[in-house]
Design brief:
Blueprint (H helix, E strand, L loop, with lengths): L2 E6 L28 H9 L5 E7 L3 H10 L5 E6 L4 H11 L6 E6 L3 E2 L3 H15 L3 E6 L10 E5 L2 E6 L4 H10 L2 E11 H11 L1 H12 L8 H5 L6 H6 L5 E6 L3 E2 L4 H10 L10 E3 L13 E5 L4 E5 L6 H11 L5
Parallel strand pairs: 1-2, 1-4, 2-3, 6-10, 12-13
Antiparallel strand pairs: 4-9, 5-11, 6-9, 7-8, 7-9, 13-14
Helix pairs in contact: 3-6, 3-7, 6-7
């Protein structure tokens, strides 16, 4: 049995603009004790896996290569997507490149995870379940009523259902209920089992992904063939349909670092300066004063500033989407 860490690295990190740009998405920002989230992902999973496969895109594969070199890893393989087709296809490419019995441990490249005994226990259990033919997802015990994550409803290791990102009232209900867990976006399964389920529930995604993969040249996928692949997430395509699903309920520290609220909390924990009203400056050492403001984040870059209330962090994506149309040079 071989275990491959499949690292998904296609995201842009639009909620972290202006730090995160298309030319340098959040997983490549060296702002986590001098390291990047991508580097941390690779090094964290090395001890569990026999090989590394990066599924990225033509805009960032060179950044991934640089990160791997800096992490002293040269025995990796890569699949370079011609255009984003979402996670169902990205994982299918990885599965087509493996033997049916190989275990794929699929992880995003941009999550902050505390490795240690709890993490090892969760991964070991997931690998055991994957060997038994299950498709495994990881559910994290929530520590607060988070509205930025999807949730898994569970009874033991059985999945009762998936829930979209909730409003605050629903998130508070989930927390009180006790059997709802954050959906980590990490998975573990045999390559062949995943492909069987994808073929059963989304045959068009399966067939078009297979055609694109088989026509790839030096790991690079063809644009025209890729555009024929329906863009659908792995959750919608497989996880919400398969009867083979299990969840490993986990207690390791985890964050998807998907918003400035997450960045703020992490930086604060690490001793980053916050004033008496809870205001934080990111990206500059210039002396900054906040008057009449509290829990505000000021983000400084050379060509753009962002000023936001911490509790409006999810709205940064709307700014990114508007600038994509109005000022593409800034994204």
């Amino acid at each position: 049995m071989s275990i491959t860490n499949v690292i998904l690295s296609g995201g842009v990190g639009s909620r972290l603009w202006p730090l995160s740009r298309k030319s340098r998405p959040k997983q490549y920002l060296p702002i986590f004790e001098g390291k990047t989230l991508f580097q941390n992902t690779v090094t964290r999973n090395r001890e569990f896996c026999d090989s590394v496969l990066v599924v990225g895109n033509q805009d960032n594969f060179e950044l991934s290569r640089r990160e791997l070199t800096q992490a002293n890893i040269d025995d990796y393989s890569e699949i370079i997507e011609a255009c984003p087709r979402n996670t169902a296809a990205a994982i299918a490419f990885a599965a087509f490149s493996a033997l049916p019995g190989d275990i794929l441990f699929v992880t995003p490249s941009d999550h902050l995870i505390e490795s240690g005994a709890e993490y090892q226990k969760a991964v070991d259990r997931a690998v055991t379940l994957a060997q038994e033919g299950y498709i495994v997802t990881f559910g994290l015990k929530p520590t607060k009523p988070e509205t930025g994550f999807g949730y898994i409803e569970a009874k033991g290791e059985d999945v009762k259902g998936f829930r979209e990102k909730p409003n605050l009232e629903t998130a508070e209900e989930f927390l009180k209920n006790g059997n709802f867990f954050w959906n980590s976006g990490m998975f573990c399964f045999q390559a062949g089992v995943y492909l069987e389920e994808l073929k059963a529930f989304e045959p068009e995604v399966y067939e078009t992904s297979k055609t694109a993969f088989e026509s790839a040249s030096s790991g690079k996928l063809d644009f025209e063939l890729s555009m024929k692949i329906p863009s659908i997430s792995v959750d919608y395509a497989v996880m919400e349909n398969t009867k083979k699903i299990k969840v490993v309920l986990s207690e390791f520290a985890w964050s998807d670092m998907g918003s400035f609220a997450s960045i703020y909390d992490h930086f604060k924990k690490k001793g980053h300066k916050v004033d008496s009203k809870g205001n934080m400056v990111i990206g500059t050492k210039l002396h900054t004063e906040f008057v009449g403001l509290k829990n505000t984040i000021f983000v400084y870059t050379e060509d753009a500033f962002l000023i936001l209330k911490k509790d409006r962090s999810q709205d940064v994506k709307k700014v990114f989407e508007r600038l994509e149309k109005e000022r593409p040079d800034l994204v």
